[in-house]
Amino acid sequence: MNEEVAEQVATPAAGEIQNLNQDQNGQNEAAAAQTPPATSQDEDQQQNREKPKITPIAPSALEKDVPKDFASRAATKITAINERELDEEIASSKVAAMIYKNMNSPELYEYFLDTTNELLQSEHTEKYAATTWTAMLWHEDVHPEYRTFIEKSLQVIIDGHISNKRPTHEHEESGKDFSAYAYSLGETFIQMMRLNSDLYNILTDIYSFIIREEMTRDLSKADDDTKKKLITGRKKQKGSENLNPKKLYDDVVDYISERGDFRSDTLNQKNPNEFIIILADRMRSTRRYIIQDIMNRHALEKKKVLEKELREREANAEEVIIASPPFKHGLYLFWVEKRYNFKYLAVEKVRITLQIVAIFMGLGAIGTGFLGLGMIGLLEGIIVGIMMIVYAQLFCSRIVFTPFYPRDVTAELEKDVGAYTPTFRKMSLDQINAFMTKQIKDPDNALLLHLLPEYVRYIFAVMPDRNDILLSRDNINEFMERMEINLAKHQRGKPL
Q1: Contacts of 299 (CB under 8 A, 6+ apart)
Q2: Which helix (H) or strand (E) is 169 found in, with range?
Q3: Residue ranges of domains in the chain
Q4: Helix axis angle, 180-195 to 274-313, nearest 10°
Q5: According to the model, what pLDDT value does residue 341 have?
Q6: Which residues, in sequence order, are CB contacts of 488 under 8 Å at separation 6+?
Q7: Per DSSP, what are the bridge partners of residue 169?
Q8: Residue 60: predicted pLDDT
């Protein structure tokens, strides 16, 4: 088969794989590459170069129908195209078209990496591993589908890295293990820089996508875990699918850095891999910048989402107005409850004192009768003692002293607090500050203002499910400080 790659060939039947003779094609294409180029180009040749027609290697999208040497055949085809075409732009255009036509399928994305690995196996073809990646992105302006293909392929690579789908690659000199995907990408990036340092823009494009994709996944997972924790009350257990804890973007840089390490035999021996070390340093700087940018953007987006949620959850003006009367009445009941405690203790002190005195008088009568020290005998002493003990138990009981106890308003207080607590849960910091300022200025609360801080602390203490309130702990602390300051200003006659 001596025809050019760009020539049109018949497409095999559906589900059938075209059997290309690699040896023959390789020989014929190599011979074609050695043929001197024509000095003139006619109109037909120009059209063919503009719209190359690429022979499909594997027309079927089904993985089971893909031949075992699919990647090897694709690598051979890429090599032949690059060696035949003297114009790099034309070569890259044909390579990109061939790759997209034969590998644009979810089942075939990973073969793109396999093809890269095939090209990396030989010093003669390793540079084509770099130009194959760059070819796809060089022509994305005309073919935006190439960009989509690269991104989907990178997503498959990231998935493979996370799940440790392929055996690790051991660096020969250091003995360190790296992900098979980090090795492929790292070597490809090194070849890019070996060809032309200007290719760093494309390298950064690829590397940035990996960072952003992995960071986005982690941040999304973290947000989902947080939401599930709020709903279920417990943190989601780490899934078993994340078998490789190391990020691909970290592993790639670490591999490149290790490749650039040079152990010289003499003091004056120059490091031939100095450009690799420079590449690793530049990628670290790029990594720091992109990660910081992602974190800033995520924080900004999260802030916007939270602000939107807060606006949706905030109490409306009507709810705030309705909450004011029960709040004021609750403040009064809180004062009554505080007084109740003192009155209750005072009555209990009198009751218990009388009870103790009666018991001791009874025991004294029994002792006096037993010793014969008085006018009464033992029998009279026992009778008097029993009467005093009965008096202590019956006439000094809580039932008898009930009229003297203060009225317990705990149930009423809890009812009032429960009436406005739902509104307090939905109040923003500005809303609750404005609400409390009005309460401080309200004449109905003038005599009870000294109880406001304690009353508010009581409200937040008895509030159920405090994790679900709109205010954070810092917001509550800020609110309490501002309220105490406004209260002090008001008591001194200063404007709030």
Answers
A1: none
A2: strand 169-170
A3: 22-34+46-294, 317-491
A4: 120
A5: 66
A6: none
A7: 178
A8: 41
Between the alpha carbon of residue 144 and those of residues 78, 139, 141, 489, the distances in Å are: 21, 8, 6, 66
**Pick from 190, 423, 401, 177: which is nearest to 319 by CA?**
423
CA terminus-to-terminus distance, the chain: 93
Nearest to 462 by CA among 409, 413, 426: 413
- DSSP per-residue letters across 429-483: HHHHHHHHHHHHH-GGGGGGGGGHHHHHHHHHHH-S-GGGSSS-HHHHHHHHHHH
Residue type at 5?
V
Neighbours of 21 (CB within 10 A): 10
Distance CA 370, CA 374 (A): 10
Q: In this structure, are residues 323 and 425 in contact, taking their beta carbons and an 8 Å threshold?
A: no
3-state secondary structure 146-210: HHHHHHHHHHHHHHHHHCCCCCCEECCCCCCEECHHHHHHHHHHHHHHHHCHHHHHHHHHHHHHH
Backbone angles phi, psi at 405, to 5 degrees: -75, 150
State the pLDDT at residue 40. Answer: 40
Residue 41's pLDDT is: 42
Strand pairing category for 177-178 and 169-170 = antiparallel
Contact residues for 426 (Cβ-Cβ < 8 A; gap 6+): 313, 314, 315, 319, 470
Residue 100: its pLDDT value, please? Answer: 96
- As a whole number of angstroms, the distance between CA 406 and CA 348 comes to 11
CA distance 267 to 244: 39
pLDDT at 3: 36
Give the number of residues written for the chain: 496
DSSP 270-328: --TTHHHHHHHHHHHHHHHHHHHHHHHHHHHHHHHHHHHHHHHHSPPHHHHHHHHHHHH
Report the chain's C-alpha Rg in angstroms: 42
Dist. CA 216–CA 127, nearest whole Å: 32
Residue with tokens 């780490």: 238
DSSP element (H, E) containing 177? strand 177-178
Q: Looking at the DSSP assignment, which residues form a beta bridge with residue 170?
A: 177
d(CA 64, CA 62): 5
Q: Which residues of the chain have pLDDT under 50?
A: 1-55, 58-62, 230, 233, 239-240
Q: Across-strand partners of 177?
A: 170
Per-residue tokens: 233: 């009350």
Its pTM surpasses 0.85:
no
Q: How many CA atoms are closer than 13 Å to the CA of 482, on its beta-carbon side? A: 16
Structure tokens at 263: 């152990």
Instruction: Return d(Cα 380, Cα 375) in angstroms, integer.
Output: 10
Q: How many helices and strands (H and E) does the chain possess?
A: 17, 2
Q: Token pair of 293, please?
A: 């940018």
Q: What is the pLDDT of residue 17?
A: 33
Report helix, strand or coil for 395.
coil
Cα gap 189→207, rounded to integer Å: 9
Tell me 122's DSSP state: S
- Dist. CA 187–CA 190, nearest whole Å: 5
